[in-house]
Write a structure and sequence with these properties.
Helices cover about 45% and strands about 20% of the residues. The protein is of the alpha/beta class. A hairpin with a 2-residue loop joins strand 11 and strand 12.
Length: about 350
């Protein structure tokens, strides 16, 4: 399939470029969007073994000098200690404002590298090369970067839009099935939020060309939402569908439950609660559950409503004594609803079917 490009009109604007096999040509795009300068590739211990050499070779072909920094793969590395290590690396290697940080990896890498690029020298250029479906359709687009604190996920961060996002769906073929399912949780989320047509297309078998098209549609929905609300004060909060309960599940599991699995269960639970309260059309929750199960995703976890509520109360989406919840009304449409914080427990109880 030919190259697909989605323009994100935020800040000075940037392209999300989607094409099978594009990774080996990424140097050309890096050179085109950043001009002269060196590149710092930030990646993790899993991705470095698979794709770092391909990127280094492509950059070298374009006469771009590069250095790489590899950290231990996993959510447990998304902390202030790893961020500090990346900043010290950039300083030690004498990177300057005209240079570029490249995030090569999944959501954790994009968050870490993006946050470092936002604060090193008060901001240097940044490019995203997502290597997971989850990062491709979600975290690589929109400019949100963050690290976890001991009190919860993503509690320190910055908005940092990339110069470009380079997405090669071929690299997803090396993902374990569980990791691909993680990404499907976020793609299903876009269907529930914006398009019943997209949602029901997930019943069909994924092919290389349909994967490119699916990523393009998800990125387009996210781009449109981010353009309307770059700093997450209004409409962009829709993208948090399933996340308030999902983050609580992650926290209760001590982050042993992956993000996509947690969001899937959170989405199913909020749909059940929304239907119980008469906000969602009858059958909405069942349709979401069936699609999640079809893609080997969970619809609940064994944590009690009380455990989940306590964990969710530390979530950054709280605003004083209110919390903004994303509630499905049917497949393809959701609403934002501000609720008193004490109502959260009720939603979680209904979501668990109690």
């Amino acid at each position: 399939m030919a190259m697909q490009t989605v323009k994100v009109n935020v800040g000075k604007g940037y392209d999300v470029i989607i094409e099978n096999g594009i990774l080996s040509d990424c140097g050309k795009i890096v050179k085109k969007v950043t001009g002269k300068g060196r590149a710092a590739i930030i990646t993790d211990s899993n991705v470095s073994r698979l794709y770092l050499q391909t990127v280094l070779t492509s950059l070298k072909k374009e006469n771009i000098e590069s250095e790489s920094f590899v950290f231990d793969a996993g959510e447990q590395s998304k902390n202030i200690s790893t961020l500090s290590d990346i900043l010290e690396f950039l300083a030690e290697k004498q990177f300057v404002r005209s240079d570029t940080v490249i995030a090569l990896g999944g959501g954790v890498t994009g968050d870490m590298a993006g946050f470092a690029a936002a604060i090193y020298l008060r901001g240097i250029k940044f490019i995203q090369i997502p290597t997971t479906l989850l990062a491709a359709v979600d975290s690589s687009v929109g400019g949100k970067t963050a690290i976890d604190l001991s009190a919860g996920k993503n509690l320190a961060g910055a908005f940092k839009q990339p110069e470009a996002v380079i997405c090669d769906p071929e690299v997803f073929s090396t993902l374990p099935e569980k990791e691909f399912a993680n990404g499907m949780a976020e793609t299903i989320k876009y269907g529930v939020l914006f398009s019943d047509e997209l949602f029901y297309s997930f019943n069909d078998k994924t092919t290389p060309s349909s994967l490119c098209e699916m990523i393009k549609k998800c990125v387009s929905f996210k781009a449109r939402t981010v353009e309307n609300d770059e700093f997450d004060n209004g409409e962009r909060k829709l993208l948090n569908l399933g996340h308030t309960i999902g983050h609580a599940i992650e926290k209760c599991s001590n982050f042993t439950v992956s993000h996509g699995y947690a969001v899937a269960a959170g989405m199913a639970m909020i749909a059940r609660a929304s239907e119980s309260l008469g906000t969602a059309e009858k059958g909405t929750a069942e349709n979401i559950e069936k699609m999640l199960i079809k893609h080997s995703l969970p619809t609940d976890f064994d944590y009690t409503a009380e455990e989940l509520t306590n964990a969710a109360l530390s979530d950054k989406k709280r605003s004083g004594d209110k919390i903004t919840l994303v509630l499905p009304t049917n497949i393809g449409k959701c609403i934002l609803k501000d609720e008193p914080i004490q109502m959260l427990g009720k939603y979680i109880e209904l979501g668990k079917g109690k």
